[in-house]
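User: I want to check something. If I give you two sequences, will you return the structure for each one separately, not as a complex?

Assistant: Yes, each is folded on its own. Here is the first sequence with its structure:
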Amino acid sequence: MPTLPRVLVTLRMPLEHLAPLDGIAEIDMSPHEYRLMTSEEVGRALPGCAAILSQGELRVDEALLALEPGLRIVANAAMGYDNLDIPALTQRGIWATNTPDAFVESSADLTLGLLLSLVRNIVTGDHHVRAGEWSSQGFQPVRWEGMLLGGKTLGMVGYGRIAQAVEKRALAFGMKVLHTRSRPGAAPGPNHRSLSELLAESDVVSLHVPLNPTTRHLINADTLGQMRPGAILLNVSRGSVVDEPALISTLRSGHLAGAGLDVFEREPHASPELFPMSNVVLTPHLGGSTREDRAGGRRLAAENVAAVLRGEIPPNALNSVSLRADG
């Protein structure tokens, strides 16, 4: 019986999430219960593998690719793909794929969750109760006064699938929504703004752009200064879209009322200067972390791998390489 190609899966997950690979691949699963495999661990396990299925945090570069010349696909179970060296993959004839639709609803939910946590003091209120301060200090109504979302302006930098899902939720709260881009193929509408206009008009600015050379540090000391005094910044996109030291400085100055951050420049490390700030909510890159969307994203990544192993073009190809006759 022919030997099945091996697929290295860098995160432990239920086998049913990988159902498209049944009968066509042998699965090498991460040995860890929760955490991702490190680059060093992947490097040791990679020789002999035809595919990598990653949660999207593995840095795939020339050094890693050189360890297995027979690699045929690197499949991100994630929307983003800034972890992939696409030119290097293409040069070596290796497919790169992502899962562009898998985590839209989860990420949109989290965006509103961060916003509600900030404007209604949910996290600080929770700490207040757990620390016994409510029982010892009594009711302090003025201390916990927050902000209604109704009537406020949400400015979205970017207008892709997640931003449009956030827009639906924000409109349900009675917010006005602005955006810096239009729907694909559509002419700019009345809610379209330039970045500088959007920053000046918005009570809340939410980032929904991929990380690339144009968007790296798009939010910096200059653009932060253009935001309305007392505004809130949300980032559920990529950490390096924001210049973290500049954000910290702006928060310390009091120019911004707060920030909700799910992503950071040097993940899994967040700047310690953020930790004592009660007007900042920090989460560990859990935008897509719902059982439903994780399962769907992994299955879609497995479908991409399965297509390549069959000698077909993967559904979510990020590059174009020649099909192999041995598929």
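And separately, the second sequence with its own structure:
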Amino acid sequence: MRRIKANTAAGKSVVITGGQLEDLPSLLPPSGLFIITDTNVRALYGESFPAAEVLTIQPGEMSKTLTVAGDLCSRLLAAGADRSSFILGFGGGVVCDITGLVASLYMRGVRHAFVSTSLLSQVDASIGGKTGVNLGNYKNMIGTFKQPEFVLCDHSLLSTLPDIELLSGLGELIKHAVISDRVLFFDISASLSRLFDRDPECLEELIYRAVKIKADIVRRDPLEDGPRRVLNFGHTFGHVLETAYQIPHGIAVMEGMLIASELSVWKGELPYTEARLLKSTLESAGVTNLHELPENIIRLIQKDKKSEAESVNMVLLQSIGKAVIRNMHIAELQDFTEYYKQRKI
């Protein structure tokens, strides 16, 4: 078990990698516990839940709405939750996102933490204090910042994760390496088969290193005012593809990373050979059938949280392991998308 602090001015948080469900009693308050989970996770692990009132939602993006968040708040009130209560989100990225939002809103804020059950949430969604629900087709348009007191990452829980969800989590794992740690990128590339075999030693080491990257960025920029924006690499295009084609988040991000690397080459930031290197690794992971850009992609990007008037903050690469933030005019991005539709790496 290893602990990584992700403390900010807004609150203290610790990520526990390599922990076990048996560690939960020592981390939780003796009373006033409420658990938010989804039906799939409850069916798998409900018997291991600590004593608590359990609130269940449906799995998947369909639950990331204000309606579901409001319903959870109503159910908390009916169950007697008050300002001293503690909410534990037990699940993957969707559960973490909506639990964090509910915890930040209910009675203007109650304590909360996560047991992270998917690779996506263990390396990304549960860490950093960003909460959110979707607004129609727009991803995470409504949200807050609220740090969980702890995130418990029991890697044995990944044994029940479907392959497609493991691949989705791998997208965020690779992204952390691509933006910040070239050595980690090559280590992940060399370990793909072990990752898909759920090798516990391999998972623990690579997840730990990825979490350290995100925790360090979050400490320096808790509210995403500057450096933290590099964590959005692949997301501007990825969010559009995720919504348009209903594909898992991390897989959409991997496709978005490929487009962003092509944009980086087009802008003269990234050598072509580096873009090919990224593409080769993602193909080895299983990302081969790329989706076409929607015709209305520019309009959709303009609705993205990262856009500002007639420009958008894009995360580009200068090399594998080094990302930069560039503000691009929408007209320039339009030129690139027309170019990209005609040529892919």
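Because they were folded independently, the notes below concern the second chain alone. The mean pLDDT is 95. The longest helix spans residues 200-220.
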